[in-house]
Amino acid sequence: MRARPLSPHMGIYRLTRYSLITSFANRITGGVLSVGLLAFIYWLTCLARGARAYARAEQVLESDLAKLFYAALIAAFAYHLVAGIRHLVWDTGRGLEKAQSQRSAWLVIAAALALTVGALWWAFRAREGV
Amino acid sequence: MSLQTPLGKARGLGSAGNGVHHWWVQRLTAVALVPLGVWLLVSLLTLPSLDFVTLVSWISGTWTASLLTLFVLTASWHSSLGVQVILEDYVHDQGSKTISLVLSGFVHVVLAALGVFAVLRIAFGSPL
Q: Which of A48, B8, B44, B74 has a CA that sits 20 to 30 A from residue B50's CA?
């Protein structure tokens, strides 16, 4: 049987469309947050194992690479949060006109950037190390 | 503009009434995760320090332990649904698709169990 075309047809989209970029970014950030969930559960189990086990885990949890990962998580959360709210608004049937969705795409990007910068500033300013 | 079919409208259901379940739970968990996620991030950012004692006493609070348990369950569920869609879309080989979907489902259930158990163990205090 001949292979039939399957959705999503990655080859046929214009990759620079705002609609595609915001949608794909929502997927990517969702994937990053799934990895973040894995790390979060690991962190919780380390805490549950007691002070000595946690002290050992802290070497990994407080490494520079880990901090970079936390920063990526914060950025991913900020974007996924705002883009998710945009989706929830769409689900009510509102904001689906082309001009509206174009405007909300920019709003999402701007709000996600602002939230990311704000949260990162807060995280890295208040304490030495996250 | 309505996207519902005339028959669906007449019956008060979607195309079959059942296919909408994945979509609905994804939205439901998304709505719940807005306050839960924001609460968790703000809490972690505002804790006076992130050392063991501070974290354990924070998690041991009734509200924190309850909300953290809800966060773990809701986030695992939402993540499971999201990863499922990604796998369905990009893994084209039927065999690998089935295996990866089953694996992702199992991993998410294990994560939820581990997370809930860890929160409760911290909250109630380890016997040792």
A: B74
Residue in A50, A91, A96 nearest the CB of B126: A50
Among the partner-chain residues A45, A51, A81, the one whose CB lies closest to the CB of B114 is A45
Its pTM stands at 0.87
Task: State how far the Cα of B22 lies from the Cα of B8, in Å rounded to an integer.
Answer: 18
Give the closest-approach CA distance of B79 to chain A in angstroms: 6
d(CA A83, CA A89): 10
Report the complex ipTM: 0.88
pLDDT tens figures, B6-63:
776 666 655 555 567 889 999 999 999 999 999 999 999 999 988 999 999 999 999 9
The nearest alpha carbon in chain B to A84 belongs to: B30
Closest residue of chain B to A26, computed from CA coordinates: B82
